């Protein structure tokens, strides 16, 4: 029953993400209603124990291979993200002069 409460909490938190009046929103509201009737109301937020349970059940993700990591880094660079160097240095200007 505890896991059902976690699921209900997640379903309810997903409702606002679906867009008002969409078919997906309606489906989530139906599921939330069914789960609420069967298992009771969801908690307003997840407790540390609930987050720990979800983490233990999560599918482990593998690290990207060196080739995949290079491809990811290149794509992020094309998008202007990543790079790791921070912002480029600004040109030094004297007070009162335009850059």
Summarize the structure in words.
This protein is mainly α and 99 residues long. The chain has a domain at 2-58. Helices cover 54% and strands 0% of the residues. It has helices at 2-14, 23-39, 48-57, 66-78. Helix 1 (2-14) packs antiparallel against helix 2. The longest helix is centred in the N-terminal third of the chain and has 17 residues, at 23-39. The mean pLDDT is 76.
Write the topology of this structure.
Layout: H1 2-14, H2 23-39, H3 48-57, H4 66-78
Helix pairs in contact: 1-2
Which key terms come to mind for this protein?
54% helix; 99 residues; mainly alpha; 0% strand; single chain
Order of helices and strands: HHHH
How big is the Rg? 23 Å
- Average pLDDT rating: 76
Counting helices, strands and paired strands, the structural category is mainly alpha
Separation of the first and last Cα atoms: 65 Å
Task: Characterize the biggest β-sheet.
Answer: none
Task: Tell me the fraction of residues in β-strands, as a range.
Answer: under 5%
Low-confidence stretches: none
Number-wise, the strands total 0
Overall morphology: elongated
């Amino acid at each position: 029953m505890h896991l059902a409460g976690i699921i209900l909490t997640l379903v309810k938190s997903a409702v606002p993400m679906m867009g008002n009046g969409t078919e997906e929103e309606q489906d989530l509201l139906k599921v939330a209603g069914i789960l609420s009737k069967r298992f009771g109301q969801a908690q307003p937020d997840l407790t540390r124990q609930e987050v720990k349970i979800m983490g233990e059940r999560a599918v482990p993700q593998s690290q990207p291979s060196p080739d995949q990591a290079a491809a990811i880094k290149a794509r992020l660079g094309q998008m202007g993200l990543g790079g790791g160097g921070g912002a480029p240095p600004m040109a030094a200007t004297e007070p009162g002069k335009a850059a």
